[in-house]
Amino acid sequence: MVRKTLTLLAWFQVMAVGFAGAALALSVDFATLAAGNEGGGQPLTFNLGGGLSVSAYGFYTSGENAFAYLDDEYNSNPGGLGVAGTLDTNLQAVPSSDDNVTPGEKLKLYFHDGAYNPVDVLITGLTLRNGSHLTDFLGTYDLSVDDTNYENRTLVHEDDINDILTDTLYLANNNPSNENPYQFYLSELSYESQPVPEPGTILLLALGLGSLGWARYRRH
Are residues 111 and 206 in the same domain? Predict the structure, then answer.
C-alpha cells in the first residue's frame, strides 16, 4: 500500500510538471501597454509572466541604433509599438510624429528569460495599425526570423503568421513612400510559449522522477 501511494504521488508530481509546461496561447498587447505610458527606450522590456520577457529595440535598416517607442492612442484609435529616431529628456519622440515604423526603420523583438537567455516562442499572428492609427494599408514589409527572411509581406491589419518558432523577430519597413498607409505600428503580437521552468518546478520534477525510480526499485 505504501509503495502504491508513493508511486501515485510520484505520478501526480510528474503530471503536474507536464501540465505546468504545456504551451499557452498568449499575446502581447502593445496598444494597451502604450495607453498612458507613451515613451521610448533602447530597449523597452516587458515582463510577460511565467519567467518570460520580451525586449523591443528600434533600428534603421542601415544598422544604426534608434529607439523602440510605445505610442498612445490617437483620435481614440489604438497605437502600439514603433520606432523613434530621437528622444527628448522625457523620453518622448522628436518630432512627435516620428513614432511609428517608417521606411528605412525596423523593430527587433527578443524573447528571453530573467537572465537574458533566449527563449523560443511560436509566433502565430501580428496586428498592425497604420501611421494614422487606422487599419487600411498600402505597401509591404519585411519579416526576418533568425536566418530566414519573409520579404515583401503585404501590410494588413491582421497578419496570420504561419507558426514561426523563434526567439528573435525583425519587422522592417521597405516602402518607398512615407505616407501614413505605408507606415505601421505593431499593436499586438500573438504567440504560444511554454513557461520557463522555475526552480520549484525543477525540484518537483526531480522528486517525482526520483520517487518513481525508488518505487520501481522496491518492487524488484
Answer: no
Show the domain range for 216: 1-21+197-220
Q: Can you tell me the distance from the alpha carbon of 99 to that of 23, in angstroms, rounded to the nearest whole number?
A: 33
3-class secondary structure for 114-175?
A: CCCCECCEEEEEEEEECCCCCCCCCCEEEEEECCEEEEEEECCCEECCCCEEECEEEEEECC
Number of residues in the chain = 220
- Residue 136 dihedral angles phi and psi, to the nearest 5°: -100, 140
pLDDT in tens, 80-104: 999 999 999 999 999 999 999 999 9
Q: Residue for cell digits 499572428? A: 125
- Residues 175, 210: one domain? no
Q: How far is CA 107 from CA 40, 49, 51, 147, 154, in A?
A: 13, 22, 23, 16, 17
Amino acid letter for position 118: P
Residues 85 and 136 in one domain: yes
Asked whether residue 78 falls in the same domain as residue 187, the answer is yes
Whole-prediction pTM = 0.79
Give the chain's end-to-end CA distance (angstroms, integer).
Answer: 15
Q: Number of folded domains in the chain?
A: 2
| Burial class of residue 140 (count of CB atoms within 10 Å of its CB; 0-12, 13-18, 19+) | middle
Task: Tell whether 109 and 139 lie within a shared domain.
Answer: yes
